[in-house]
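#struct-help
A.M.: can someone run this one for me? Single chain, 616 residues.
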Amino acid sequence: MTNKQKKMLWRILASAVLLVAAVLVPYQGPWRFLLFLPAYFTIGWDVLWRAGKNIAHGQVFDENFLMALATVGAFCTGFFGQGEYPEAVFVMLFYQVGELFQGVAVGRSRKSISELMDLRPDYANVEIDGQLAQVDPEDVEVGSVILVKPGEKIPLDGVVTEGSTTLNTAALTGESLPRPAREGDSVSSGCVNVSGLIKIRVERAFQEGTVAKILDLVENAASKKAKAENFITRFARYYTPAVVIAAVLLAFAPPIFLGGWADWLSRGLTFLVVSCPCALVISVPLSFFGGIGGASKRGILIKGGNYMEALAGADTVVFDKTGTLTQGVFQVSGVYPEPGFTREQLLELAAMAEHYSSHPIARSIQEAWGRAVDPARLSDAQECPGRGVVLKIDGKTVCAGNRQLLMEQGAGCPEISEAGTVVQVAAQGKYLGHIVISDQLKPDAQEAISQLKARGIRTVMLTGDTRSAGEAAASALGIDQAYTGLLPAGKVEKVEALLAEPGRKGKLAFVGDGINDAPVLSRADVGVAMGALGSDAAIEAADIVLMDDKPSKIAVAMDLSRRTLNIVRQNIAFALGVKALVLLLCALGLTGMWLAVFADVGVMILAVLNATRALR
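D.P.: on it. Structure tokens below:
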């Protein structure tokens, strides 16, 4: 509990003692209400103050106004012989108990978020004039070298330049398994250095680093409301004045014809207590807040309640292939030269052709060759996006890429149907052979697809790979549909076609990781990005980020979202159902203030209790 909450608890206890003392005093005279005023003002002075202040600012219809009007009115009915003094104090007392309970529940939700916020580092170790100094991470420039000791958080994104260690990535990914890091490895801010002393060259300023982005995502999540939250906001705006008017009519219209002013006034005041929309206004946002906090503990960052709602209603999940369902680690799995040309000659030409490229496929060919390339032998290199590269090697024109590129260069080549990415090579218009590069599926990719299909979700894969490679991966994973040979614009077109399918009712989620996936992530109903290896553009465009790159977390995120939505619906149905019933009983004079207290504060406490389940 906070100090403020502890003070409120003491006020509740003091008021309860004063209320019991007032009830035990046998005096029944006209000044009996004075016995209950100390208990009432002890617990209710701040509600009365807020109600008066809000009225002065034109904000009349809120829960403070309803509670002040109902309890002051209950005191007034005592003058008509109804004796509602204990009820008036108890209503205010129980209301404050509910508010305290709600504050503690919200505090628990915020604590789960603040645990995530603890990943923000307090300092960075920088060497200045031969001395190690602790400076604010925001003041460290890109290119600086920082030192991270065992047990310290990594303050900035960078590359290890010296030393080796293991990292605890639980704050980012929700996974407790340590990850090794050695010289040349990229590391993210927020991870904890477990064992060794390491030096890191800073690659990103703090504001652009992993920690800053995560904190920004979580802090701004509450501003993106789901439809259910917006409904409650609009509902309360019209509901509160409507019930106040109904209560006034109930209190003053019937006695004009039927008499019994005190009885009808009591019914109107009870009606007001019942009508307070606290359960809805508090529990629905708390449910989404709890769901977002619970997901963050699992390494799933959801940028707002609206995206959680969209994912819960998804019936189709579309996947990118490379880096999403596969590891994005390419290896040469086959070298097939034409007759009269050796394996080494083909691999050498391909490695030289790919010398200037940083594409993963190019790097895999260079690693398979494993020797230094003399740049003096290369000239006139030209990269053809999505097709390959053309250049001159020792003055001879060489092209390496897909079949389309070789056909454009006038080199006749066969159509290869092997599974994997095929790089075909030609020199001086003569076809020399092809190299097959394979990308391994992620260990949990098949599990991810199985989990989604078990939940009745249709799965689709979009990839720029060849038909044989794409269909082989889709078949191994059990994906329902696969579209291959797609450029980024083609992926957007396919997603738009899926969204426009006749009779579609559910939402469409797209899962990707590369910079070329950013347009599709933005176009889908809900975009999911792989956060650990994914590009900045993909993470920025996505609505949900999986920090550990595991596709199996999609089913987890979907289950969390559906569970949170179920809790929200339960709270709405329960609160409205109980209130409607008790309001009817109240109008008919079949219930008094005690049941009204349950219908207001009791329902709120039960709804908040239910909402806190979203945290787990």
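A.M.: thanks! The first helix runs from residue 3 to 24.
D.P.: also worth noting: The CA atoms of residues 61 and 341 lie 86 Å apart.
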